[in-house]
Amino acid sequence: MSTIDRADLNHEKWEPNVPIPVAPMFEAPPKPIGVLRFFAWKQFWPGGAMYIAFAWVCWWYATPELASMETFEPGWLGFLWLRNAALVTVSAGTLHWWLYVRRGQGTTTKFNERWPRKSKRFTFGHQTWDNVFWTIASGVTISTGFDAIGWWMFADERTPYRDFTNNWPYLIGLTVFVFFWSNGHFYANHRLLHMGKLYDWAHSVHHRNPNPGPWSGISMHPIEHLLYMSPPVLLWFIPGHPVVHLSLLFFSLLSPILTHSGFERIWLGNIDEDRASFLSGDYYHQLHHRYFECNYGNTLVPFDKVFGTYHDGTPGAHAAMRERQRAAGRS
Question: Distance between CA atoms of 38 and 221, rounded to whole angstroms?
Answer without folding.
Answer: 32
